[in-house]
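Lab notebook: predicted structure, single chain.

Context: the supervisor wants predicted structures on file for every construct in the current expression panel, including those that have not yet been purified. This is the next one on the list. No modifications to the sequence; it matches the entry in the shared construct table.
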Amino acid sequence: MKKILLTIAIIFAVLLVAAAAVPYLFKDQIVAKVKSVINQKLNAKVDFKAFDLTLIRSFPKMGIRLNNLSVVGVDSFAYDTLANIKQLQLDLNLMSVIKGETYEINSVNLQEPTILAKVLKSGKANWDIMKPDSAAKPTDTASSSFKAALEKYAIENGNITYDDASLNFYLKAENLNHTGKGNFTQDIFTLATLSDIEKLTVKYGGIPYLNGVILDADLPIEMDMKQMKFTFGENKIKLNELLLSAVGYLAMPNANDMVMDLKFDAQQSDLKNFLSLIPAIYAANFKDMQAMGKFGVDGVVKGTYNETSIPTFNLNLAIKDGKIKYPSLPSAINNIQVKANVANPDGVLDHTVVNIPAFHLEFGQAPLDGRLLVKNPMSDPFIDMALKGNLDLKQLTTIFPLKDMTIAGNLQADVQAAGRKSSVDKGRYQDFKASGQMQASNFVYAGKNVPMPVNIPSAKMTFSPKNITLSNLTAKLGKSDFQASGSVNNYLNYVFKKNQLLEGTFNLSSNYIDVNELMGPKVVEESKTKAEVPLTVIEVPANINFNMALKANKVTYDKYDISNARGALQVKDRTVYFKNLGLDMVGGTVRMNGSYATTNPKRPKVAIDFGMEKVDIQQAFNAFNTVKLLTPIAQYAKGTFSTNLKFNSDLDDKMMPIYSSLNAEGLANIIQAVVDGFEPVNKLANTLGVSELKKVEVNDLKTKFSVEDGRLKVAPFNIKVKGIAMNVQGSNGIDQTMDYDLVLNVPRAMLGTKANDVANSALASLNSKLGTNVSVGETIKINADLLGTFLKPSIKLKYGAGEGSAGNAAKAAVTQVVEEKKAELEAKAKEKVDTLKKKAVEKATEEIGNKLKGLFNKKKKDTL
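Prediction complete. Output recorded below exactly as produced.
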């Protein structure tokens, strides 16, 4: 017995060691085969982090495990990840591995795969990554290295997306678990599939037919691999609470056609099961909701699907004697009656007809009736619709659980439309019948999700084929009130055709508009009791051409208190144009023409031509950041000014100018101002020892200016400060640096006794020496450069004079004048000497001439 047990133990140990060793013996060979197949057969970037082989866990199969496998497309799909799989496991037939000729794959398991299957409008698919076949060489074995002999496949916790732009179809399955079992080695077998999806979304033509529903499906399929025909056996498909079944088959006889013959219906016909497909209802107290009435859905799909045709189909939906009520609320939606049919008789998509001949429901006792018919959706859509009802909005709160919300008012609707899109395209509005009106009264809406209550005492819209007329609109949003009237034109073209302008003309007036409140509440930071919220880019919509006449008695915007706002606005081409806009603000009047454009929403542009009349300097400094950055002297100035300015700039994402892009030019008129306490002016006064310069009074000063590359450039201008004449020109930047040239004519008396004594003594000495009589004059001309920054200015006097003490600077200035006078004295002395020399030469010439004249006269007499 001991020998038998020992023999069994030895055999078991050998088998265990073999099971552990076999994967390592064949690992290099299998890895080489895998990479060979990938490199030779796929036109994609494939990568995996780890490669494991196992026999023990998968015995009697050999397991291949790829961890963190990724497949990334190339060319048009270079930025799309086709697959990202946390773990891919293949179980192979052990004997096929040992023989080494082919490797039979018996099962495939994908753990946490994220797969994006994408089709472009051209029909090109990102999973078409197989390299084109070429003439195979006799020695090529890669194509036959692996053979599918599947018995089972599985997907665990997967996320699958199918996005087909050529069909305008989209499917997304989140947290998918799916298994399939069957013998794929046989030509005919049964594939048993089980699927559950946490969130399934299906869209077609932009319409979400399923939106985040739960799917649970048990679907056996009879597989005929030779005929490529797949027949659905007895099955159940559960969508949220709705249970469906489908019978029939789907076949792919060739590479281009898909033939189908399917019939489906709802096995349970309670209305509540159907309502579970509506996300808003299913998410809110669905279990407590009472729903009575019958629901029915059935349909057939039969025919061939390919690039030129679709199958015929017929879908019926009906709700009879429906009622919806929440137990905690007193009222209900009663008497729900709906019949709908979507059918295509011949496989031509344009022959599809959507027909809802009538629907009826009652909100409490208030009825709502309507109908809808759509034909020829592809070539020339025909629509015939009507809606009529009188809805008490407050009654909705007795029907639906509306959390943190208040709504009230009355909404009346009676609208009809019938006609073809071609009538609208050709402007034959008489052939498209659209009429009726919608009217709201005493509408009130408030809640946690709205920043302020909305109150509309009255509003009326009247419909015609050409336009929608808005009249009698009065509204109040928080503190703001509005009155409006106008019309919207071309709305049918806008609805039916792409890239059509929606045109409108409106008159808007208001007693008070609080823009800050309309833009939402302010955020209070922990370190501040009141925090400013930076503005964000307001994007102007496309395909809009609205003209608005505007009048508002008072407007609050950011820090601005504006009154008597008037003018016109045009919204067109993603741009708002301001036309003759007038605002009373910052103590004066602002006139504006210009534009604000969001053609590129990441970099808006503003271009404005505006004038400011008799504006208070202090208010302008506190209101406008640009004034703070470019003219900080305004902080120390009191008075009024006017300006005409042309301004353009790019804006950042907080609606602030990008100063490197800012360009402006204009004319400023300082009507009256007093500058006191400005450090650069104080520095100049202290340097020259002229205290009178510290307080500058300006009246009726006009100057041109421009803004380029973030610098304010000031053209030369003249001012006079208490007898001191000044000429100023230069620039300063948003970095607060200055570069100004100053020319001052200072009364000599202001420069101090010592400086004047030096000048008088020097000139007296020169006059005595040269015999001249030249005086210094009553004023001294001083050239100075104002440099540095506004907070740390520096003064540089010309001719070597620096920033020494007041006496030294004044003395240097006077000494320079004396030097200039010295040159003048020397010139006059030289002129005097030259004059004397000239007179001497003239006198000598005259005497010589007289003597010669006498001599010639004497000789003449002697001759005679």
